[in-house]
Every structure is written in C-alpha cells, then in structure tokens.
Amino acid sequence: MNSFWKEKPLMIDHLNQVDQIIIEQLTVKQQKMNEILQDLAQSGGKRIRPGLCVLGAGFGSKSIESIYPLAAVLEMLHLATLVHDDIIDDATHRRGHLTTQQKYGKDYAVYTGDYIFTKCFEILAEHYELHHMRELSRAVSRVCVGEIDQFDGRFKSNTSVKRYLKIIGAKTSALLATSLAVGAYESGCDEAFCKKLGKIGLHVGNAFQIIDDILDYTGDEARVGKTLGNDLKQGYYTLPLIYALRKNDKQLNDLLALEVYDDEVVQQIIHRVNELGGVDKAQELAKKYTTKSLKAIASLPACQSRDDLEWITKRLLVREH
C-alpha cells in the first residue's frame, strides 16, 4: 500500500484486508509462478479500483467486509491487464519496478496474466451471484476492445479527441465505473443509484487517464514509476499530442514523420507539444470531467463515502504520479 490513501486511515484498513486476500489468492504451489504472482501482488499501486468498490459499498446497508473479495477481484483484473499491456508495449518498468515481462520474460508474463484472469472468475463464482460475473466480464471486454482500438490507431496523426475519449472510456474508465457500481449493488443499493455511481466513475476515469497521459509530457520518471515517452515510441498519440496536432505545426509534423522515435526525438516532441499548448488544453478537459464528477457527487446522499469520493476525485486531478 503506497501513500495515496494516507489521509484516510479507515480506507487503509479496508484496503489492507483486500491486499491480504490478493496475496492469499495469488499464492500457488508452483515455485516459479508463485514468485511471479507474489511479486505482482506486492508491487504497490494506488488501489483505486478496490477503493472505489469500498466507497460504492459505503452507500448501502451491508457490511463493507462482504465486498472485500469483490474489491480484490477488481484489483487483480487490473493487474492482469497491466501484465498484458506491458508485453504489448515492451515496457520495462511499472510502479518503479521491472515489469513482469522484463524480469521474467514474455512467456511467463502471458501465462501469469491468464492465470490471474481465471482466478478472478473463480473467486466471483465462489462468493457472488451471476450479476457480478456478467458486469465484470463486460468491463474486461470493453478494456480489450479499447486496447485493440488504441493499437489499431498507432502513428495516425488524424486521431480525434472523440476517438481518444472512446478509447480511454473503454480501456480505463469502464473498470473504474464498474468498481463503484458493483460495490454499491452488492451492498444493497438500487439499480438507478448504481447507474448514477457508474456514470460518476466514467467521468473520474476519464480525468484519471487524461492526467496519466499528461504526465508522459510533464512528469518525472522516478516519481511516476514508469518509463515516460513509451506511448510516443509505440505510436500512441494521446490527448496532449492530439491537441498540439490541431496547430498543424511543421516542426511537430516533421518530428512525427521520422521512422524511429529515439529518446532525443521523444524529448523534442514532448517539448514542442508543451510549446503548442497541448498539455494546457488536456488539463482543461481533465478539469472539465472532474467538475462533472464533483457536481454529481455533491448530489449523492450525505455520508462518509460521498466525502471520500469527493476527496479521491480531487486527488486524481492534482496528482504528480
């Protein structure tokens, strides 16, 4: 558990319990697999998805403890998608550590991601009704489609803001929205309320991903905990660059037309995108989604979960890693 939740000791208690479930569920007899799984289970992270699940459950009538396995599944699903993402992107670092594919090889990484996915649905089948299996399956399906759409659009300078938002809505926001909604559903909230929370989760997820993409142009690699500029090298044109491309700037276009983006070229692109105001425009949109989220959150019933949901939304907007 990192310092993200340090101002929320009760949430830390909940998420520590969730972490214990993750560690237990990812403990296996096969020595090599166990080493890899435990490495992943204890690799840190903000625990946003299980945290949102706990907050969603706080609006209902059941005990929070009943949703711990569900919250664990949400984080495990996220871990599995990260393992596979890092294989595709050939990423070397995640959360300040070597990625699974870098440390153990791509073959082990593929099997590990697959194992975590199957373990998630085993937990759901043991503890919960079919509703959660269906909702999480849909969320994972959206993540996969979003990743394919993103991969299909590599190196395309005509990528629109609309298409970008569709991609991040699928690959990032869908699971955040589901996290809030299924937590509330499991705790006894009605369907309309769960849908309202899900919409908030979509807005929060959009803000979260936009800020994450902005950090590729403004962040410090040691603090962010991942290789910066990797999206550019892979040909993924995210929001700051999309906005900068609207300027039809010759220098930027010439840089993007190069066959290989080495570290020097990446830094030149990053510098030019900042000069053209791409980062500033992206920050404006992140604020827009955060404002939408906060307005919707303010209309929720007064309780600790509402206060904490407001807190986390603001925290996602101003984060530096």
How does this model look, in words?
The protein is mainly alpha-helical and 321 residues long. It has one domain (3-318): Farnesyl Diphosphate Synthase (Orthogonal Bundle), CATH 1.10.600. 74% of the residues lie in helices and 1% in strands. The chain has helices spanning 9-25, 31-41, 48-57, 68-89, 100-104, 106-127, 130-152, 161-186, 191-218, 221-224, 230-234, 239-245, 250-256, 263-275, 278-298, 304-318, and strands spanning 93-94, 97-98. β1 and β2 (97-98) form a beta hairpin. The chain is globular, with a radius of gyration of 19 Å. It starts with 8 loop residues before the first helix and ends with a helix.
Encode the helix/strand succession as letters. Answer: HHHHEEHHHHHHHHHHHH
Structural class: mainly alpha
CATH superfamily: Farnesyl Diphosphate Synthase
- Rounded to the nearest angstrom, the radius of gyration is 19 Å
Distance between the termini: 15 Å
Shape: globular
In total, the number of strands is 2
Per DSSP, the total helix count is 16
How much strand?
A: under 5%
